[in-house]
Amino acid sequence: MFPQEAPLISGVDSKTYPLGEHSEHFQGRPTMALVALSHTPVEHQIYRAMLLALAENTKPAALLTARRLMTITGIRSLSTIRRGLEGLLSKFSIDRERKTNESGTREAGAGYRVYPPEEVIARRREQGFAGTERGELNHSFERAITRVVEHRSLSRREAQVALCCVEGLTNAQIGSRLQVTEQTVKFHLRHIFIKFGVRRRAELISRLLM
Predict the structure, then answer these.
(1) pTM of the model
(2) Ramachandran assignment for 28, one of left (phi > 0), alpha (psi -120 to 50 degrees), beta (any other)
(3) Considering the domain 1-129 in this protein, what is its CATH number?
């Protein structure tokens, strides 16, 4: 039904971190790591495919359709693509726009424009998005991001909680930011402490900033 084209990225392996990708993808790229942490695996698969397509396209204003994304991601479910796109829209990682043809006439259906990680974080801060992107990207916070990315046994949510701890947030504040209960935050912290071999928050923060 669609032209056969090699997917730009491989499928997501949920057993690895972050989001099915190897940590070397994020070395020296803390902004990409922060954006990746905010995405679900499918959202990030779509997001990376859009970034790669943008890099390969000579037209700076090129838009991608949902059906085009089915081809370049290898995701064969249009509903899955659409759910992923809605998630990316809600997280300010992409925008929806009407496509226009060469004569300037608007075509039926929508196209999607992707933003690089630095712009995504800036857009989220402008909109007050509740995520780990609020932390200032100074040298110390970048080091903490690197430590989190290198610790491959952490789940996406555990990584988010760990970085919130580095920012100095209380359990209640972390819960409010991540929209989970305080008990859920405590649950994740217990697992984080075990995985880092620490007993308290201060030790965890020290381990992430060392």
Answers:
(1) 0.71
(2) left
(3) 1.10.10.10
Domains 1-129 and 130-210 equal at CATH topology level: yes
Strand partners, 94: 114
Tokens 């972050």 sit on residue? 18
Do the Cβ atoms of 35 and 28 come closer than 8 Å? no
CATH topology of domain 130-210: Arc Repressor Mutant, subunit A (1.10.10)
- Give DSSP secondary structure letters for 118-154: HHHHHHHHHHT--SGGGS---HHHHHHHHHHHH-TT-
Asked whether 87 and 103 are in contact (CB, 8 A), the reply is: no
First and final C-alpha spacing in the chain: 53
Q: What is the pLDDT of residues 174-202, one digit of tens each?
A: 998 888 999 999 999 999 999 999 999 99
d(CA 172, CA 29): 29
CA distance 130 to 150: 24
